[in-house]
Amino acid sequence: MRLSESLRKNQLWNGLVTITLLEGKNMPRGGLAEIFILLKLGDQRYKSKTLCKSANPQWREQFDFHYFSDRKDMLDIEVWRKDNKKHEELLGTCHVDITALPTKQTNCLELPLEKHPGSLLMLIAVAPCTGVSISDLCVCPLGDPNERQQISQRYCIKNSFRDIKDIGFLQVKVLKAVDLMAADFSGKSDPFCVLELGNDMLQTHTVYKNLNPEWNKVFTFPIKDIHDVLEVTVFDEDGDKPPDFLGKVAIPLLSIRNGKQSCYTLKNKDLERASKGVIYLELDVLFNPIKASIRTFKPREKRFTEENRKFSKKILSRNVDRVKKITMAIWNTIQFLWSCFLWESTVKSLIAFVV
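User: That's the sequence. What structure does it adopt?
Assistant: Structure tokens below.
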């Protein structure tokens, strides 16, 4: 009840609508001018970055909208054309009632344009976030001794068989970031943080024109699987365009040391190389070991929002190299085993026959 009241007071969104814009079919005036898409949900709006000059354009872009379950907002989609003189013209529109879509799954929709030929193909996933909260440092849940005791008692051993799905509680203090990458021409960024745990996603406010932002916010998540990984991603807000990636960290829940402020180096999207900047977090995780053990023997929760990646020559080349290395290793092993029985080396062949 306190969480729902907090959500209402702070106008905190309690879900996420992830839209993957795939392609268009038989677009009006396709091939004559560049086509882009404008998406609107309430007061949120995004514009596709890719300009396609084709009757069957392909965008392959993903957009995340905040979802308020108590609102009846319609998703408005507009198709625009842009010529060389920077003149823009509306080619067609279509609408989607988000509240009518099934939640916790990805819906593939082909939407015909109203009063115009052509259609759009897109994926829409509605993922509700339940039991989450955002607060300031001064009113964090585990900062109150009475509330900490209540939460600890909820996950003690004697309550192991009450509400089996309620495994644990995660509190994340997002304090600040230092020396972030400059994403704007002015040499600054407009950074904000997105925190993901399973299918739950929360976001900080944006600190404008700053490479050393301080957020000082507290986020809480219900734990559904103790083997989950908390992902914290820093983005640069880019107006009505999808945000630019600045860096990311991934923290397994089982590696968390409670109450200790830690400094994490931001990495690239694949978490393979260090990016520019560091982020300061303080994490606390409380969980029931028996419930967590029982959950271990069940399949992992399926992600409702999967990124639709563009074709990458770099990834293809890397995978080809991997296959070559594996093939050569297998071939060298076969050659070695074969040589053991050809008496090229008497000692080696004798040992091979004895074995």
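The chain is about 20% helix and 40% strand.
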